[in-house]
Amino acid sequence: MKNLNRKPEMGRRNGVIGLGLMPDHWPTTSNIINVSFPLPPQYPSTSTTPAPDEPKSQEEEISKGEEAVAQVRKEVDILEHQVFALQVVVNNGSKVDGKEISYLTEMLMMKLLKLDGIEAEGEGRAQRRMQVRRVQGIVEKLDLLKLRNSKL
Predict the structure, then answer these.
(1) HEC secondary structure over the chain
(2) Model pTM?
(3) CA dihedral 78, 82, 85, 89 (to 10 degrees)
(4) Is the residue at 128 inside a domain?
(5) What is the pLDDT of residues 85-98, one digit of tens each?
(6) What are the boundaries of the region Disordered (predicted)?
(7) Domain span at residue 111?
(8) Residue 100 lies in a domain
(9) What's the whole-number mean pLDDT along residues 62-86?
């Protein structure tokens, strides 16, 4: 993926989260606030396929499903923190760039797809269902936030 930031040595992305838009090209009205978040850590891929001659035990399959759900939960925690930060800014009467809200919505939808691809049984399945509902609730909050932000 191509890095659109001007300076690769920057520890934070400036401006719109992940879109790499340059702050000097944005509107300069005083009521728009650009929120900067730390870069989330890169998560290693958890998808591994066993050799065809090695049968997977049911316990191994369950634990892998629970581990995958736990990994997505950590990623959603980071996104939820960013949503909360945007809520605080908008609730204080300041306008944020709509692209930030759209970016967070898109990232949460990607987490829903990731959860959908996890095969789990028993407790892992219940955890996955709980995380899907959690992500859907956060997306609904973002929709309301986007509406409130557009009225500012």
Answers:
(1) CCCCCCCCCCCECCCCCCCCCCHHHCCCCCCEECCCCECCCCCCCCCCCCCCCCCCCHHHHHHHHHHHHHHHHHHHHHHHHHHHHHHHHHHCCCEECHHHHHHHHHHHHHHHHHHHCCCCCCHHHHHHHHHHHHHHHHHHHHHHHHHHHHCC
(2) 0.61
(3) 180
(4) yes
(5) 999 999 999 999 99
(6) 37-67
(7) 64-151
(8) yes
(9) 92
Query: Is residue 81 a part of any domain in this protein?
Result: yes
Is position 47 within any domain?
Answer: no
- Say how many residues make up the chain: 152
- Which tokens sit at 129? 């269902």
Q: Which residue has the tokens 């959690």?
A: 134
**pLDDT tens for each residue of 24-53:** 444 444 445 555 555 555 544 444 545 555
Measured CA to CA, the distance from residue 42 to residue 60 in angstroms comes to 25
Tokens 């290693």, residue located = 44
Percent of the chain topping pLDDT 70? 59
77: domain CATH number?
A: 1.20.58.120
* CB burial readout 37-58, b (16+ within 10 A) else e: beebeeeeeeeeeeeeeeeeee
